[in-house]
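When time allows, look over one protein, given below as sequence and tokens. The question is which stretches look regular and which look disordered:
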Amino acid sequence: MTDPLLWSLLAVQILLGLVDTLYHHELTQRLAWRGSQRRELALHGSRNLLYAGLFLTLAWLQPRGIWAMVLIAVLLAESLITLWDFVEEDRTRSLPASERVLHSLMAINFGAILVLLLPLLFAWAGAESALPPVSYGLWSLFLTAAALGVFLFGLRDLMAARRAPALRSDDPQEIWEGGLWDGGLWDGGGTRRHILVTGGTGFIGRRLIAALVARGQAVTLLTRDARRAATLPTPLRIVTDLDQIDAGERIDAIVNLAGEPVASGLWTAKKKRRILRSRQKGTRRVIALIARLTRKPEVLVNASAIGWYGLRGDEKLRETDDGRPCFTQEVCSAWEREVLKARAQGVRVVRLRIGLVLGHEGGLLASLLPSFEFGLGARLGDGQQWMSWIERDDLVRLILLAIADRSLAGAVNGTAPNPARNRDFTKALGRALGRPAVLVAPARPLRILLGDFAEEVLLGGQRVLPAKAEAHGFVFRHPRLDGALEKALGRQLSWRGRETSIKAIRQGHGQNTVNREMF
């Protein structure tokens, strides 16, 4: 083990593996939180544990005889697991080009390592069995650090594989449970409706489409990338341009969720322009479609955000409150002005001001999970800022209510009735994951590094209440943060607890005066 080329190749393999793990597995693909990747995670975990043993052995020992044969067997097992992993990845998910290229480089590099290492191991195998200690200085320390890293990620992947079944998306039929939709528009025996959804391949849209398809509704999805819709439930019609919809078609409702993500990257001047223009242009196209349709849709449900209210401290905000100037307020205000133009076409308009949506597949929670899972969860600033949140299925049910209830129009707050301060949210997420969450991210560095994004999204906040939704009889299944996090993280209620939850929903509806003909 004195060949500098062998050590260099080992270092390259470790660094490539680190990039693959952090960039692909953690940041972009988020494999540990994808219920469909149980087998891939188990393969990754097993391989990483083998790597940990291999690295430690090469760092501090010189295996002779039977021990050298064991090391050869480990290398063979690693090769077989890697081949199996390649097949599993191709079978279960669409790999980005960068991941395929990186895997190819790692395979070539590993082959070169085997060419140099195997002859040495076979030579050691001919000696008397022994494990004499050795040291290669900094190289031994480097391999030890690598062994610790792959061991920790290996354990994490095996634990993630164990929880994967609980992360599979719930049956979308469950969205309809609890008696909310009896005897009206969404009744299974009623008229089949045609719903157009824009932005339907996103975190919220995918679940909405699944619920509509499960209920037997006709769904048309507008998306710029038809490949992203490949895993959505069918039957589903996909269009890449609204001009593909004929003027004579009947569309009963439009749900517009499309827009440049606000939290994906720094708010440069160019990014701000994209955020604003994507919402304005997308909504203008929807309004143009409505204008040329012979039969106008009954309702347009348009996504907005609680950023409309601006930074308001501890004020309790309802739909009748005004907005305070800031970038997010400017975006939401401009977006809502565009969508209101649909009223001139005789269309009922619902402006859904959505809060922080909780679910492991996307949104705020997806960005927080990696740090919290490794015990690095942190309060932001003093933690006093309010976080107005909503569990994803509750938001989908609220969208369905907005479509169904003909008396519901105007601004509607898409938030749960119990917003939480950031410090309490941080503690609750740590509890849900069984991890400490005691760190603090100071406000000043965040402001210096992230500017307005830190001020408005991380350190600012709104205390928003769903006054109009509740007035129209909507009852949240997850009104409190702990329960919403358990649902979002795949910790399902027991059947008895689920029955109790549904009973509470029904009782809640009994306490509200609701025009059932609207559902």
Q: What stands out?
A: The longest strand covers residues 299-305. The radius of gyration is 27 Å. Residues 181-185, 492-519 have pLDDT under 50 and may be disordered.
